[in-house]
Amino acid sequence: MPMLDSRVGRRSAGSSREERxxxxxxxxRPAGGRRRRPAGAIVGGARAGGSPxxxxxxxxxxxxxxxxxxxxxxxxxxxxxxxxxxxxLTSLSLEELMEVEVVYAAxxxxxxxxxxxxxxxxxxxxxxxxxxxxxxxxxxxxxxGFYATQDRQYAYIGTRGFSRPGDYNTRILLQINGHRVxxxxxxxxxxxxxxxxxxxxxxxxxVIRGPSSSIYGTNAFFGVVNVITKDPAEVPGVRLAGRxxxxxxxxxxxxxxxxxxxxxxxxxxGTFMDVDGQDLYYEEFDAxxxxxxxxxxxxxxxxxxxxxxxxxGATRLQAFxxxxxxxxxxxxxxxxxxDPRTKGTDGRxxxxxxxxxxxxxxxxxxxxxxxxxxxxDGDYVYDAEExxxxxxxxxxxxxxxxxxxxSVSGTFAGRHRVxxxxxxxxxxxxxxxxxxxxxLLLDDDRTSYDWAVYAQDEIRIAPRVLLxxxxxxxxxxxxxxxxxxxxxxxxxxxxETTCKLLYGSAxxxxxxxxxxxxxxxxxxxxxxxxxxxxxxxxRTYELVVEQGIGRRSQLFASLYQTEVTDIISLEVDPADSLxxxxxxxxxxxxxxxxxxxxxxxAGGRTRLSWAFAESEDGETGERLTNSxxxxxxxxxxxxxxxxxxxxxxELQYTGERKTPxxxxxxxYAVANLTLTSRLSxxxxxxxxxxxxxxxxxxxxxxxxxxxxxxxxxxxRAFGLKxxxxx
Length: 726
Fold this sequence. Notes:
Shape: globular
CATH superfamily: TonB-dependent receptor, beta-barrel domain
CATH class: Mainly Beta
CATH topology: Maltoporin, Chain A
Strand content: over 45%
Distance between the termini: 56 Å
Largest sheet: 22 strands, antiparallel, barrel
Number of domains: 1
Helix content: under 10%
Number of helices: 6
């Protein structure tokens, strides 16, 4: 199955043959391509000389070495350890030993993870802090069955063997406190540093596996990631932080939280980061005319973002704005190599106002209205046909949209817990422009709308048996309507055992670029529109078993089968030799996931997981690109001196993956170590971290727009953070 891009000006034709056809026809150069690593406070460095292909065993060796190191760390005596110093685990839930015992995103109301109609993982604030996570991509790398790749511009999240190169996270729904973050031009979600959102503000990250369109509609295809921020009362006063890391990374964070006597609660925070970046070597460009393959000073990054949350009584307001500028050192789409003027700038923001009301009869009403905007500027430098001259290409994209929703929930007849609601969205501006060599090649400006209704009933058919039935109907101006159900039978045959039998379907609506991008207004056309595109579809069947061990530990197991149809792919129309998006491909995946969350002495905790996925092209049976069969993880947090000093260690193994050009990115294992110390009664916190502790050399698959078959990832890197509270 061709792995294809879906971005304005980023024409990844799906095969090198199609790219050659464009060039042979004298077509305009593909412009654009926004990509980078999921950067945090620490930025690592790739080494010159390329990366040899690793065998699966070469990746397992550091994994086993790291596992031994973790065992020694967990078993080492803790200085001054005592019952008083130990972390209190009584408040931890059984799922991943989280700090909380509820999940919201699975059903649009809070419930115990055992009763959720999905396989759920929650990563809490303490784990985020003690593991030193900087971005949501860092968090998701630790989650069972998930993996992340990067190409020095963006972070890409994969799960259960699916992560199409060139797909900008359009098949995972990202939310902040239930507010949709995927934008409207490209359906894109940001998980790396391209989302400048401080994790110091986060109470927990909820990860819902499997189709969830029955509740959320489009993008809730492979899963939902919901970020829950802290209560303002949990962040008293002002906190300031400074960060520094490898390769000239410096940054600051600030947040404030307070509750007034009038009942006003406010939480606000901001983050800023500046990274010089690295000088990077790519053997594909190793020639005198391209600086012997070394991109010098073409990897910098600058980002800033702010978040505000205010509430009083049953009314709450939240707002976010973030902007990130990133140079692109990989020279995608044939741009001029080693030119720092090639860069991408992303902006994303929203303001939402919500109100809740509960009636005397026990019904809970919730309404929300929001205004969102997104922006992208891509600057690309090409060598012109005249020797010594250059051509500038520019992507310019802007979107604004309004959204409103109303839901009602309640319990009826003592055994029905029902939630129902409706949503509507109006895209007031969807504008794509492409400038090339001084000409306006594309100016597509339009509006659109969609609406939906949904309902879910959780029925307690026996004291230990739940039946969950839900469905949602979505109506789009573009392709019409689609209905997606979800069913779950949840039983607890024993006190510590939960079994879930799950079925769900979901869809991904075609985005504006896939529907309407064209350059037929130029001198030489390469791509045309297809307003008749339909949605991608998915069906998943899953069996989940969760087994508690005492009050503090749990085992997890799941079996699943997934069928994806009508995948939107870019191909050449033989009638006119123009590129066009069509609903063409199919894919199937089946697999197993095993995991454990364990309490260890002195208040520590350990989590282990292994996932196997067999993902294939539905027509040819070939293995999908960027699809590892094996993903394994180990993470442990050990209090060394109570809260005064703790160590967080993790080891992440990813199996070999097929690249879009037919090569192989070898298996690898990466270890990270973080030390955290709280002093002055918790007012001062110091964090020191090492990423890629054993300096593992590994690659991620490139995409069709890259000359590189594999893109080497960062080596060992260091970071420091100091935070003080007032």
